[in-house]
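Figure 3 (text version): structure tokens given as input.
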């Protein structure tokens, strides 16, 4: 087979492969956790880690994320932004509700998990286990992927 055919086959395989974000998911019953991730630590002394993901609920009733744990952190909190006197503040939540036949996005500007007292440095392409506890689906162990930290340009005047 000629070189051009090999290149064409490789390009076809790459085009048909699912994107990494879609391929990285965990399912249990009617619940799916899609692409759980965090960013790499750029500083040595970072101890708080935010974790993001999409939660999909295919059942006819709402599901609730009640808690999360990992041996790599002292504490995991469910954090929701609340507006207090015109300022958006991160506030601890008792649970996150995933609507029936719906989804909930945990992201930087919305609800998220906050892992406090993280015990190891996270570099890009690392991963770690996190156990989520749902009201109906029960415990689900997921793998959180560590993505490259976005480098921000210094502010210029």
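Below: residues designed for each position.
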């Amino acid at each position: 087979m000629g070189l051009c055919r090999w290149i064409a086959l490789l390009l076809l395989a790459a085009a048909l492969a699912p994107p990494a974000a879609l391929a990285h998911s965990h399912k249990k019953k009617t619940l799916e956790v899609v692409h759980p991730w965090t960013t790499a630590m750029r500083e040595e002394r970072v101890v708080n880690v935010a974790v993001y993901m999409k939660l999909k609920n295919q059942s006819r009733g709402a599901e609730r994320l009640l808690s999360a744990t990992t041996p790599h952190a002292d504490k995991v909190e469910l954090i929701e932004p609340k507006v207090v006197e015109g300022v958006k503040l991160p506030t601890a939540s008792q649970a996150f509700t995933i609507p029936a036949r719906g989804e909930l996005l945990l992201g930087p500007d919305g609800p998220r998990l906050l892992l406090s007292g993280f015990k190891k440095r996270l570099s890009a392409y690392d991963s770690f286990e996190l156990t989520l506890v749902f009201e109906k689906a029960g415990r689900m162990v997921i793998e959180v992927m560590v993505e490259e930290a976005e480098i921000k340009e210094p502010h210029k005047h």
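The first helix runs from residue 3 to 16.
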